[in-house]
Amino acid sequence: MNTCEKKSFFYHVKELRKRVVRSIISIIICTLYCFNKKQILFENILFYPAKYNFISYKFFSKIGLFFNKKINILPNNICIQNIQLFGQFNIYIFLSLIGGIILSFPFICYEFWKFIKPGLSKKERKNIKKFFFIFLSLFIIGLLFGYFILSPFAIQFADNFFISELPQNIFDLNDYVSIIIESTLLMGIVFLFPIIPFFLKKMNIIKSCFLKQYRKHAFLILFIIASAITTGDIITTIIVFIPFYLLFEISLLIIN
């Protein structure tokens, strides 16, 4: 390695270090901000799906009335208990950190972009911007679907399911937090599905005719999946099935 290469290497290391430090500082600042917004973070976001007046329950109820069919929603707020000594404090710290990472994510992406941008051609910059926009849009839509659709279905099913009249459904705090986070993130990842066929086509592994050939099979499989993750009610199943099938059609459009 000659002197110029050494200087170039250490310059990039120094530049990377600067970007990483800035990103960490932004996470710390945003985390401290979330510490100070406990009402919004917990009452208006985390525990909102546990309340009977959650916007999704009202939406499901109106759809049921439109079809002259009653959809069971939460009659009351669900009961959540904490059985660990520092359970609530640990959740407070954990979710504040998660909130800090989410709020600082745009700035982190900006710092990452500023680091890699000089080494990219004009065409590469354009393609990366386009890909990132599609990736982020699908992921955010998936997160919203998981939070407003899948999580309420999971909570409603768990609250209404009984094996006997004796056991009472009282949810553990950690279990509740897990199901909200996992349902939301799961849908965020699932909604990235259209990106997979795009890369498979680029590698000449599949063609659009393959997906078109098995469209009917995909329709049936997606309907079964939608039915499995809901209460089995036809209306709620359709509500979940529609975006799933739209993702499949979007995949066809992308690889075409």
Automatic annotation (TrEMBL):
GO cellular component: TAT protein transport complex
Function: Part of the twin-arginine translocation (Tat) system that transports large folded proteins containing a characteristic twin-arginine motif in their signal peptide across membranes.
Any Pfam family matching the protein: TatC
A single MF term (Gene Ontology): proton motive force dependent protein transmembrane transporter activity
Chain ranges passing through the membrane: 20-36, 91-110, 131-156, 176-200, 220-248
HAMAP family, per the entry: TatC
Topology relative to the membrane: Multi-pass membrane protein
Annotated localization: Cell inner membrane; Membrane
Keywords recorded for this protein, A-Z: Cell inner membrane, Cell membrane, Membrane, Protein transport, Translocation, Transmembrane, Transmembrane helix, Transport
One of the protein's GO biological processes: protein transport by the Tat complex
Subunit structure: Forms a complex with TatA.
Protein's UniProt keywords contain Transit peptide: no
Name recorded for this polypeptide: Sec-independent protein translocase protein TatC
Family according to the record: Belongs to the TatC family.
